[in-house]
Amino acid sequence: MPPALDFTKQELTRLDVARADGASLDWASMARDMLLRAAQRLRGAEQAEEIATDSFVEKLVNDLRFLACEMAWSTIPSLVVLDHITGEAVQRIDGALPHLGDGERRTALIDLCRQDAWRIIMDIRRAA
Questions:
Q1: Buried/exposed 53-70: b ≥16 CB within 10 Å, e otherwise
Q2: pLDDT of residue 86
Q3: How many angstroms separate the Cα of 115 from the Cα of each of 9, 25, 45, 83, 88?
């Protein structure tokens, strides 16, 4: 949750308590309504960012699957192919999603691409 949304939730809670205590109802109501609208806007922006990230991840995984299929038919050793695909995944993730930093989501996404590529490479090479 973004810090701004967390702060907004804390302020809404504080204003609700103030209204229950009989503090100036007009000011508390107006402030609560303004904070509620701001929270809804923030939540909308957060959801839009998640949708954009999800569509990027889906496209990335599909692109890397296609690359793994193409490279699996070559005579390049399997681990070299896997390293190439992993490097490609790291470049694309770091370029498109810099806000992930070195966090768990980034590592999990790279691992997902790597595991998927390895499965595809091994399936094709076993069948060939």
A1: beeebeebbeebbebbee
A2: 92
A3: 39, 58, 32, 11, 14
